[in-house]
Amino acid sequence: MKQRQLTPLGKKIVKRLVDLNQTQVWLCEKVGVSKVYLNFILHGERSGKKYMDKIIEVLGLDEEEQQSA
Question: 7: helix, coil or strand?
């Protein structure tokens, strides 16, 4: 079975969560998505376009990260 890989944006999101000492569950609650759907976004299986602005806002990502979203 092929192991799923985080996208470059997924890696940035996970790193930012670690920097903030927060969990994916916390991010899900703030953004209003399920943990499963967030995982799909992090692994590139869903674009998450509808939620990307909110994810960027909640995590306080800068312009550089925003453009790679």
Answer: coil
Q: State how far the Cα of 62 lies from the Cα of 68, in Å rounded to an integer.
A: 10
Indicate the CATH number of 8-60 among 3.40.50.11460, 1.10.260.40, 3.40.50.620, 3.40.50.300: 1.10.260.40
| All structural domains of the chain with their residue ranges | 8-60
Give backbone dihedrals phi and psi of 11, rounded to 5 degrees, phi first. -65, -40
Question: Over the stretch 41-69, which tens digit does the pLDDT of each residue have?
Answer: 999 999 999 999 999 999 998 755 555 55
For residues 57 and 19, give the distance between their C-alpha atoms in angstroms, rounded to a whole number. Answer: 15
pTM: 0.85
Alpha-carbon span 51 to 31, nearest angstrom = 7
